Structure formats: structure tokens, C-alpha cells
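anyone else get weird line breaks when pasting these?? whatever heres mine. first is seq + C-alpha cells for prot A
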Amino acid sequence: MTMQPGALDHDHERPWADQEWTQFQRVQRMVNHWDRPGWTPGRRSYHWMVMLGHVPALTAMATHCQEQLRDLPHLDLVPIASLHITMQRLAFTDEVSPDVAAAVVNEVRRRCADLPAVPIEIGPLAGSPGAVRFSVGPPEPVSRLRNLICGSIAEVCGNAALPERASRFVPHVSIAYHNTTANAQPLIQRVASLRHLRPVTTVVQSVDLVELRREGHQYIASKHAGVSLTNGPLQHR
């Protein structure tokens, strides 16, 4: 039986989540998430990610939300084991050598050597023009970790390796991707009915460089290397 997540504590202010929800409510048309340049059959990409498919409270909340969205057309549900926060893309694997990827990993390890684990809240549910996703915050500690990753990429590969849009970072956990253009309002209304669920608290203990590939309308991530943060035992709540 699927665990039912608890109700949201409305006394707890989450300005980052309120802002993301306000922006999603203004979306008029959903777009095709999969319409992205560079992705050809069999091509893979290096991405830095925080993998979260092992957090029981998050997987329960995501499963519950996906069950409530399953009947909507044009949504591709994210496999629960693949839940993640995308921190930063490095490059397609055919654009960088293994030595360069290893150098970036070593630089991230050096910069994160004294960085403590990052407590986060995941939720409530919101979205973007191409996805349904949980807000993640507070954003500042997550952005600090990401800035160290971006600095490492720039140190090894040069500033040109970071796209201009890299500065527009909103941490989130996607649970479904939209696969065509369509009126956004029916989806926004359905998401609104799920925003009462209480956010999940957990701790980011590591960040991984993964090889990402696409199989149909699904991402498959294979861990290439991991970087641990300074922390004690992880407790999921």
C-alpha cells in the first residue's frame, strides 16, 4: 500500500517554493521537454547530480503524486529510483576526454573537501513549462555546492564550458516530463490539488558525476564518480 504523505504545515514559510509556484501559475503553454539540441540516438552526457531515489519519504511522496497525475495525457513519469537534483551539465561524453572528466572530479573533490552536508526540504509540488517537479530549498546552500561544481568545470575546461543559462539555477526534483505542446491550465490545476503535501526533509551527503543517456522518453543515469561531503550519519525523515 502506498504511504500517504502528511499535510503541509502552512505556518512554515518557504519563499523559494512560493516563487516557483507563482511562476508556474503564469505558464500558458507546456512545451516538449525532450526537444533539446544535441541529443542523438546513443549519445550520452556527463551531468553532476544529487541522486535521491534512496530517500524513503521522498519516494513515497513522489509515488503518491505520480498516481494522481497518471491519467493526464502528455506526461512521462520519472522512475522513482531515478529521482534527482540536476546540479550542472559538464558536456556530452564525446566532447571531453576521460582525463578531462577525471580532472573535473578531482577539482570538485578538492573544493568540497571541507563542505558540510546540506540539509534540504523537497516540496511542495510545482512545475515548469516542461516538467512537474518538487521545489527544493532553501536554495542558497544548494547553490553554494553548485557554484563549487561550476568553478571546478571552469578551472579545468575554461569559462566557455559553462553556458550562459548556467547562472539561472532553480533546484528542483522532477517527477514527470511533458512531451508535447499543450494548454498548461489543466496540469496546473491538478498540481494545485497536490500542494498540501508536507515537504520531505533530508540531507545531501554526496554529489555524483553520472553518464546520462536517453531511452525513449526516459533518462538512464550511470554513476561515473562520486564526491562525498563532510557529514555524520544520514537520517531520512
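and prot B, same format (seq, then C-alpha cells)
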Amino acid sequence: MTETRDADVVVVGLGVGGEEAAGRLAEAGLTVVGIEHTLVGGECPYWGCIPSKMMIRAGNALAEARRIPGLAGESTVTPDWTPVAKRIREQATDNWDDKVAVDRFTGKGGHFVRGSATITGPGRVRVDDQEFTASRALIIATGTAAVIPPIDGLAGTPYWTNREAIEAETLPETMIVLGGGSIGVELSQVMARFGVAVTVIEGSDRILSMEEPESSETATEALTKEKIKIHTGVRAQHVSYDDGRFTVTLSDGSELTAERLLVATGRAARLKDLGLETVGLDPSARFLSTDDRMRAGDKIWGVGDVTGNGAFTHMAMYEADVAVRDILGQGGPGADYRARPRVTFTDPEIGAVGVTEKQAREAGVDILVGHVPLPYTSRGFIHGPGNEGFIKLIADREREVLIGGTTAGPAGGEMLGALSVAVHGEVPLSTLRSTIWAYPTFHRGLGDALKALAPRR
């Protein structure tokens, strides 16, 4: 027998976006059922943002200690992964237990269901022998999963994704990383700082290929200094695993061997076997298509990574807010992705917002470009070792506003704040140029980059 339960809202997936939407709607007095098949909170607190940044913080501490010679004396550093793994287990993930998160949701009045959901028709969702009907809204927030490329021999081997890397209690001596995007380069640098010999394989002609070329150059220089080997323009064609070691054959015929293989080749929405076809949606799509109110269909909303608008916690929270306001009839602005911020937490950090120079040109925008190397700024000079980076601004010459920018350096992610406000608020260039930038800060370099804005061919 199937048990049927009525609700105002059913939320499928309680990652960052789903939990935010479900909790707020429950607090608003609606009857909300939240369904999650793994851990409430999703990728970010357990295998993504939080634990990975703990790892990065530890690696950065080692790097700073190694920069003491020439600045403040001498130093000897001995890396130890044990306290890092312990901190992740005890402070970040509660040993991968989501009781606190579940209690947080139910404490707001929500009804929690653990299990895999299947949509069986408009407003109807089944979990095992339970069926829930949503009279007001169905929210799809199933997140993404690591994309595993169809490389010959890869399936069945004990390769790592970001999850296994985060859960590692001990580190290998050698590691091959497939993918030179943000996840790949962040984890590569961390592992290298703890003594792992890392090799990165990237099919594009540069790592961080979606960002500015200067970002790729900065990251490549930083990783190379840490003895990370980077192969670009080649792809893995065959993988084998024998006697505790991986062998990867590349498209140029060369072979690489390592103890571990980390696959970081992108992510795709969890839509398969969800039953989307029963509500007129495409289950084979890579991401769930939504409008500016996060509507994916009649009484259906999508929020978070599943929408493909950026696999970031801040984007999931942003989209959840738009969807909640729409469901409650509160109005307000719809989703606006012109000033989408993103940070690659390497050392130096690489922050970016809005469009790149290439994207602006491809859109036919008449642009001005301002570029300043960070070591040439006062704070960059003062900082000394570890001051690599730059500031790059993209402006619409006709409208006289910034439409994109990148801030790379020791505080690249923090410098991004002013640019995010400028791009989102379409602050006139004249206003930005007349701004008083505190001296000597890293963000004062934004004033220098604004002065450098000029046509570029």
C-alpha cells in the first residue's frame, strides 16, 4: 500500500539551495516536505566549499611559513596531513553526519524524508512506499554529480572524485589530476604543498580555460613553482590500474603513472531517473532550464547547481531567494546573472565577476580594458614574496560602466567585492574614478586599473 501525504510544497534535494528554499517556505507557514537521498546541506559543507577551504587554509599556512626567509628570519616546515583530516571530520562534517542540518530544517516546521525521489506526475513525488502531493510548488534542487568521462579502462578503477579527496585520511606520494578547472587546480596545489608529486592533464590549451588568459598564466606560474607538472592540449585516452598504481595514456602517445588518479572534469545536473518526463521536462538535459523567476514548468521551480547557472553556494542561495519570493507572491527582482561572482581559491586567489574580455568581444561590445600587475601596486610591493597577481577591468565604452573584472592576488577573492557591486549596480566609470581608495590596500589597485582603461585591439 502507498501512503499519500498532501503538502503545499515538495522540495526534491536539500543541498544549499533546496534547504534554504524549504526552510524559508516552512517558516512562512507553508506545509513543506523536504526530500534528500544523501546529506542535508549537499556538496558544499561535506565535500566542497567548507572542507576544501580548510585544506587550502592549511596549505596556505605552509606556503606562508616557507616565505619567511628574506622577510623575517629562517623557517623549517614539516607538513602533516593528520590535523587537516581531523579538522575536516570533527569541525566541518561531523564525520559526515547531517543531524544538525536535519534538525535545523524540521525545527522550522518542515517534514524531512530520507530517500530517492521520483516525480510521478504534476505535483506528485514518490519515495519508496510514500507519495507526496504538492498543491502549490514542486522545487527541484537535486544538485550536480561529478562527470566521469568515458575514457577506455577508467570504469571500475579506484579513481578519486572531489569526495574521496576530501575524505582522505592519508595522502598518496603521487597523483594525476584529470581536469584543470577550479576544483582540479585547487586540490592540486593543496596536495603539492603536503608533499604529493602532482601532474595535471587539461584538454584545453590552458588551465582555468573559462577565465581570462592572464588568470591561466598566473595559476600556471604559481603551480609550476610548486613543482606541479601541467600538460595542456592533451587528453587521457586509456587508464589502467595494477599493483596499486594508475597508468594513464595520453592522446600524444605518452604515459604517466601515479598512485592516485583524481577525476575533476566537470559536473552535470542530477536529472536522470527523476521522472522529469512525467511533467514535460527533458531528463536527458545536462541542466534544468529555468526562467528569471526560477520557474522550470507549471508550478515547478529549479534552484542551485541543477540549473547550470554556476556551481556555487552563493548562486544556490541567490536562486532560492528568487524562487521563494515568487512562490510566496512577494515580487521583487528576478534572477540577474550579469554580475555572477566566482573565486578560484588557489594561491594567489583568482576572483572574477561578469564577462571576460573574450566574452565581451564575442557579444560585439565596444570595450575598454584596464590592466595592472599586482606587484606594481604599493601593497603588492610591500607584500613581497607571494604577491603574484593582477587586476583586469572590462568596461562598456558606450554605456561607461564596468561589465567584468578579475582580481588575482593574495586577497583576490576579497578584492572582488567592490567589482561585484560596480558591475551589478552599473556604477558609472566617472563615479568609480572619483572614489577614494584606501592606501595602501590591495583594492587601491582598482583605482590604478580604472585609470588604465583604454581601447585594446
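btw re prot B: The two ends are 69 Å apart (CA to CA). Residues 341-451 form a domain with the Enolase-like; domain 1 fold (CATH 3.30.390.30).
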